[in-house]
Each structure stands twice: as structure tokens, then as C-alpha cells.
Amino acid sequence: MLEGILIGLSAAVTPFNLIMVVMGCVIGTLIGMLPGLGPMSIIAIMIPVAIGIGDPTAALILLSGVYYGAIFGGSTSSILLNAPGVAGTVATSFDGYPMARKGQAGKALTIAAIASFAGGTIGAILLMIFAPALSTVALLFHSAEYFALMVVGLSAIAAFAGTGHVAKALMMTILGLMLGTVGEGALSNTPRFTFGMQDLQSGFSFITLAMAMFALPEALFLVMNPARAASGSDDESGKITNMRITRDEARTIAPVIGRQSLQGFFIGVLPGAGATIASFLGYAVERNIAKGEEQEEFGKGSIKGLAAPETANNAACTGSFVPLLTLGIPGSGTTAILLGALLALNVTPGPRLMTDTPEVFWAVIISMYLGNLVLLILNLPLIPYIAKILTIPRTFLIPFILFFTLMGSYLGQNNSTELLILVGFGVVATILRFADFPLAPLLIGFILGTMLENNFARAMQLYRGFDFILERPMTMGLLGLAVILVVLPSYRGYRARKRAEGVADGD
């Protein structure tokens, strides 16, 4: 391994490859900040550029820099505008945006930058150490295990429900699962619930739905509630003064960063999981293990609730390179595009990559560490200027949000029907917000629903029924974990009620 690291270091620190690292990080950060574009579209656009470079190492360093740069930068629009730039930063908005509204935009962006850097860096170190071994672990996961993993993800909805809203969260999750069934059916090309509309053949776009659930209602809320649009800056002059985190806050988020770096990385290793699921699960886990007042703060501006998904999604982003490089299995749409780029550059990912072209494998890993350092250096000094977005008057801010929301939705599918769907869902989401329904479970149900259905159908075919649950111990273990995640919040709520009544713990 030491020999491989030295090979990668010598390749990564060449002037040209360092320029590729910086360029990838800058492009990725800027794209991540723009709601709706995401890394997939920009990587697809840049593949001809990468092929034109000729050098597979430099090309992959550039493209991977764009990938984790977009994940890093996607938190900005989530925190400041409640408009997630990429799918993996949806959970960031749950506590990041409330912090911005409370005048802590600078602090929120600082925490996000530090958590992203730590998650990405720890992920890169773990990738160096465990990549060869983890490739075999990823192969142990079949359809049955992936189905169980999706159930674990859905079982975490209680974390997004808030106090006394578990029933509402369940209803929203079911609605999300229902929306996920629109389009072509699992294991077939038969259209379902399209009502004869060709534009619904491929189902609803995640970007459109995310924008409709978060960004568009926010713009409408700013119109209907002028008090909500008050400046989020730390003082009346619009200066961002509260950027630093205290020692107590650092001690608070340190264990969160440690836990979610490990959890996020190992979730990222699993093909099909990715940064989005890692961020949701990271948020859910931290909320469930938080105690008392800390748990109540989640959803209202908790620094733990901000640090958890930001750490997890960046660590998962790094982890997703394990199946890509060692097995040739893409774990997401973005890594699928990266796989296509690798093949176009005559590099065949798989178990022999480390032996045949070690300079490519190790240079990419080393560049990830360097890239995270570049991202931190780029982003921290810019925080006061980025946070000034909140000082923009409401009359300019609302059209700004609406423009990027509509543009992001249209560019996602290049289809004007998406705009009608966006507006329709946006109006419904606004009504649901007034009725105090949590919107995050709907999005979780939609994201996980399709993967859950596909893997369940495959498992049922392979094992001719529900025997796959009994025949695969790992599946049973994951389903048992899902039960715990459902029961634990209910039990803790019951204990809290009893304690309030003075009958718990011998009171």
C-alpha cells in the first residue's frame, strides 16, 4: 500500500494534475451552488474535455474533483435559500436554513465547510486503507440486502417527523412511495399511472420534486409572510460577523463528524446507496441518539443536524469510488457517467486496476485529499461574501429563487411539462406546510421507493417468494435494525411522557 501511495503522490502533485484538482473543485463548487444542475449534468458535458486531455489520470482527477466539489458546494443554496443544489444536500437544509434565518448564516456555512472537509478527508484516508478489502464486502450485497437497506432508510422517517407528527410523517412517506410508482414498472417497460402522458413515461424528476417541496414554497412564504424575509445577517449593516465556532460547539460536533465519516463512507461503498441516502441516514441516526433538549433542536437550527448530513454525504461521495474503481460497478448516476469516461479513456476499472494502472488508482485517491483541502481554502474566505445573499432585498430575492428553481427543473429534463409539474407540486407543498405536514419524508419515500421496489421484485424472483428473508442472515439483520429504528423513537417518546408525569425512573 505504501508503494501505491508514493506512486499516487508523485502523480497527483505534478503541476498539471494540481491545476486539474483546482479546476475541478472550482467548477464543482459553482455548479453545486446552482439549484437543479448537479454534478451529473456538468460531468456529462465535460467528458469530451476530459477525453481531449488524453491523460487518464488527469482526466479522472478533473471529473472526480467536479463530483465532490459539487457535493461540497451544494450546501450553500440549501443553507441560504432552502433550495438544495444537489440531492445529497437536501438534509442539510433541515437545520442549515433555520440557522440562516436566525442570523447565523456565516456560522452555518463554516460548520458545513468544516464538516464537508472532515468527511471527505477521513473518507479519502479510509479509501486508501480499506479499498481492496471493501470491494469484497460490496459483492456480498445482493437484491435482498439492498431491499433491506432501503427499508432501514424508510424506517428512519421518525427522525424527520418532529414531536407528535409520526402519523403525518408516515402519510407523507406513503405519498412519496406512491409518486415513485409513476412511470415504467419494476423489471418491465410497462408504463404505470401516466394517464396516457408521454412526458410521465420516465416518472417524476427528483430535481423537480425537491424544488417543489423546498424552494418554491419558500418563495411563496416570503411573499405571504414578510417577517420571514427579514435579513438573516448578524447585524443591521449586513456584515457577517458570526463566522467562528466556539470550543463548546467544536466539542459538540466532533463526535458527530467522527461517527458520520465512518457511517457515510461505508454506506457510499455499497453500490446504489450513495450520498443522498447517507445524508438522510446520518441525520436520522444523530437525531435518534440525541438526548432531551438537543433532540428538540433538530429541525430548528441544530449544529449537530447540520454537521451530520454534510459529513455523511462527503464521506459517501468518497466511498462510492470503491465499487467504481475496484469492481467497475457504478453506485449512482454520477459514478455511472464516470465509468463511461474511464472506458472512453481506455481504462478498465476492476480488481486489476490497482495492478495494471496503479498510478491512476492511487493518484485519484491522493487528489481527493488535496481536493478537499483546496475546497476548504476556497470556501472559508468566501463565506462572508456568499452569506450576503441573505441581505438581498425581498423584492430581488424572490425572483432570484423562482428563476433558479424554474431553470433547474427545466434543465433537469429539458421538458416544459416539468415546469407545470413543479408549480402544481409547489402549491400542494405550500398547503401541506400550512397544515404542519413534514415534507422530508415524502422526498425520502420517493428516492427510496423505486430502489426498494426494484430490489424487492428481483429478490422475490430469485428466491420464489419471501424465503429470501429467512435464507439470508444479513437481510434479517438489516430488517431487525429497521424495527429498532421504528420502535426506539416511540419508546423514547413514551418514556419522556411518563417522566413528565413523574412516574418514570422511580420518581
What does this structure look like?
The chain has 507 residues and is mainly alpha-helical. It has one domain. Helices cover 74% and strands 1% of the residues. It is built from 22 helices and two strands. The protein has a two-stranded antiparallel ribbon. A hairpin with a 6-residue loop joins β1 (183-184) and β2 (191-192).
Topology record:
Layout: H1 2-12, H2 15-33, H3 38-53, H4 56-81, H5 92-101, H6 105-140, H7 143-155, H8 166-180, E1 183-184, E2 191-192, H9 206-224, H10 247-269, H11 274-289, H12 292-297, H13 303-319, H14 321-326, H15 333-344, H16 353-356, H17 358-386, H18 394-413, H19 417-434, H20 440-463, H21 467-471, H22 473-500
Antiparallel strand pairs: 1-2
Distinctive features:
single chain; mainly alpha; 74% helix; globular
Widest sheet: strand order?
1-2
Write down the domain tally.
1
Judged by helices, strands and strand pairing, the structural class is: mainly alpha
The percent of residues in helical segments reads over 70%
Can I get a quick summary?
The protein has 507 residues and is mostly helical. The chain has one domain (2-500).
